[in-house]
From TrEMBL:
Reactions it catalyzes: 3'-dephospho-CoA + ATP = 2'-(5''-triphospho-alpha-D-ribosyl)-3'-dephospho-CoA + adenine
Species this protein is from: Salmonella diarizonae
Main EC class the enzyme belongs to: transferase
NCBIfam families reported in the protein's UniProt record: malonate_mdcB, PRK01237.1
Taxonomy of the source species: Bacteria, Pseudomonadati, Pseudomonadota, Gammaproteobacteria, Enterobacterales
Source organism, top-level taxon: Bacteria
PANTHER family, sorted: 2-(5''-TRIPHOSPHORIBOSYL)-3'-DEPHOSPHOCOENZYME-A SYNTHASE (PTHR30201:SF2), TRIPHOSPHORIBOSYL-DEPHOSPHO-COA SYNTHASE (PTHR30201)
Gene Ontology BP terms: prosthetic group biosynthetic process
The protein's name: 2-(5''-triphosphoribosyl)-3'-dephosphocoenzyme-A synthase
Amino acid sequence: MKLLPQIQVAGGAEWLARTATQCLIDEARLSPKPGLVDSRGNGAHHDLTLALMERSAHSLTPTFQALALQSWQRPADIALRQTIGRLGREGEKQMMAATDGVNTHRGAIWALGMLVSAVAMHGGVGSAQQVANTAGELATLPDDAAPKVFSKGLRATRRYRVPGAREEAQQAFPHIMQRALPQLRLSRLSGSSETHARLDALMAIMTSLTDTCVLSRAGLEGLDVMQHGARAVLSAGGSAHPAGQRALAALDRQMLALNASPGGAADLLAATLFLDRIESPYTQSNSSCRTKRTAF
């Protein structure tokens, strides 16, 4: 009997890790995404493929599981924040080894890592808003062991004076909670397929996100094209409607012409799918990211 709580924690951590991994894969396979790797091809990337994205996602499963185990029913404090930071950096090394040095999911490790830890802090349950709030609290705590280096994303936030992935997490993921998750569920209620609902959720993120991946590759012009193009898709009725599909195809052409890829939005879409899955663990659909949860 003494082993039961430990078994429950292990089962919960494993489920969270598998779910986070599958949401990364579901995001990668979703098509057609403007400028991004999907089932059609490499988008604006010369060094990424769908197979590489999926291999990268699988390499992160042990990291997500370790994050969940270390965070289970613990309070948000500096000790936990530093543990999460260390595990995230170790996970990044595993990812880079799996991809031969290609950065596939660095931003996703940050966003999904914080959310996996936050769910575990609630004992594997909780509403999306509760989880996002806890992740925000955790993200505001310092990690003194973090390397003092400037990533492309951080350089973009400094150059253009805009918020990036760090601020998105610290503010409890407003682009997920206020835009993507409501749009995902609205599109489903309107009768859209799961694919179209997810594309609409991606567009909702892209309407206002200051995506540092786009800024790094195409500057403010690229960001303006992304935001206006995403608004055009939703204004035309979304990706399920012919006019919305034409607007989405036009946006894809524009992003490719600018060599721009909204990788930050893609990371947040994967995180959106994860939070949606947390709130509806027993929902059945054709998507593997929404299969039945194992009891723990």
